[in-house]
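seq as requested:
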Amino acid sequence: MAGRKDEESQQEDNGVDVSASPAIFQFPNAEKLDVDDDGKHRRTGTAWTASAHIITTIIGSGVLSLAWATAQLGWLGAIATILIFSSTMLFTSNLLADCYRSPHPVTGKRNYTYMEAVQANLGRVSCITCGILQYTNLGGFAVGYTITAPISMIAFQKSNCFHKKGHDASCKFSNNPYMIGFGICEIILSQIPSLHELTWSSTIAAIMSFAYSSIGIALSIARIIAGKGGKTTLTGVEIGVGFTAADKTWKVLTALGDIAFAYLISQVLIDIQDTLKSSPPENKVMKKANAISMLTTTIFYLMCGCFGYAAFGNDAPGNMLTGFGFYEPFWLVDLANIFIVIHLVGAFQILAQPVYKKIESLSISKWPNSAFVKAEYPIKIGSKTLISLNPLRLTGRTTFVILVTVLAMAMPFFNDVIALLGAVGFWPLSIYFPIQMYIAQNRIKRWSFKWLMLQLFNLLFLLVSIAAGAASIQGISHGLHTSKPFQFKV
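C-alpha cells:
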C-alpha cells in the first residue's frame, strides 16, 4: 500500500489528477477533452460489443471440423474435451482480463497489446518470446482462414454442379482463383484503420457464424430424423481393416488439435479489451463478455459436434458443410457457405489487426516525422470522407495479405493446418502466459499449493499441445506427398 501511495503522490506532483478516474495514470482534463485516462480518444465498447468481437473470432472455421473431431474421439472423449477446453479458456481468459492494466487490474497503467501485458508482468525476454509466438500464430490463423473461405466458395459451385449433374459427377475446381479473390477483398478491408472501427463488421460476422452453424445443425437433425444417421460409438472410429492403432492415435491427436484451434482466442483478447469504456472497470466488463461468448460458443460447438456426428457417424467429413455429407436442399447448403465466407472475411480482419498495429507502431517509433508513415490522404464523396489512405497502411497491409494468400495457395490442407495452428498457439498463448502473469501479479509463492496446482495445469496442456502438434505435422507431411502446391483442387 505504501508503494501505491508513493506512486499516486508522484503523479500528483507531476500535475496529474488521480482522483478523477479509477486509473493511476490519469490524463489531465480527460473529461473536458473527451479522452480516456491515457489521452486517447474515449473508448465506447461494452460487454456486448466485446462479445461480438470474440464470437466473430472464435466461431470460425474450427466449428466446421468438430463433427470430424467427434468421430475420432467418440461421444465420451469429444464431449469431455469440448467442456474441458471451454472451462479452461474461460478461466485463463479471465486471468488475462486482469492483465490489461498493471500493476493493478483496475487502477494500473493500460497495456494495449498482449506483448505489453507480458512485458509489464514477466519482463522483456518473455515479451519477445510471446511476440514471436503471437504474431506467427496470428499469421497462421490468417493463412487458415484464407484456406477455408475459398473451400466454401468452391462448395457453392460444387453444390450447383452436383444438383445439375448428379451426386456421382466429377465436380472439382481449383482453389487459386477464389484465394486470390478473397485476398483482394481483404486488401480493401485492411485499410480500415483500427479494431475500434470494425464493430459493424464483427456484428455482421457474428450473425453469420450463428446462421451457418444453425444450418449445419438443422441439416444434421433432418438427416437423423429421416433415419439416415451414421454409426456412432462411445470411442469413435474403430480399429479394423485399413485403420490401425497407429492411425487411430494420430487421428485422435489431430482431433485434439482441431478442438484447441476452435478455442484459440487469447492472442486478440487484450486488443478487444482495449475497446471497452473505462467505467465500469474494463476487467469486470471483459469477464462478463468472456462468460457470454464462451457459453454461446460451447453450446454451438456441442451441437455442431454431436449432431454432426450423429448424422454422419464415423464417416463424418472433415468440413461439415463443404465435405458434401449434405447435397440437398442445395440452395440451403449454398446459403450456409455464403454465410461462412462473409464471416471469415470479417474474422480475418480482427485477427490481422494486432499484426497491422504492431508493424505500424514500430514504424512510427522509428520514423516519427516521415510523411510516408504519418500522412493521411482522405478520399471524399462531396464533403463526406469515405476513407483515409495512409502510404504505410496501404503498402504494409497489402504486403501482409499477399504473403498470407501465397502461403495458403501453397499448403491447402484444412484439418491438419487447423490442428497445427491449435497445437502451436494454444498452450503458450492461452495457458502459459496468462498463468505466469497471474502468478507474478498476485505474488504467489513458489512451491506453494496454489503455485503447484497452476504449474501442473500448465504441464498437462503442454503435453496435449506437443502430441497434437506431432500429429498435425505427420498429416501435413502426408498431404504434401499426395498433392502439389498451387495445383490443389477440391
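The first helix runs from residue 2 to 13.
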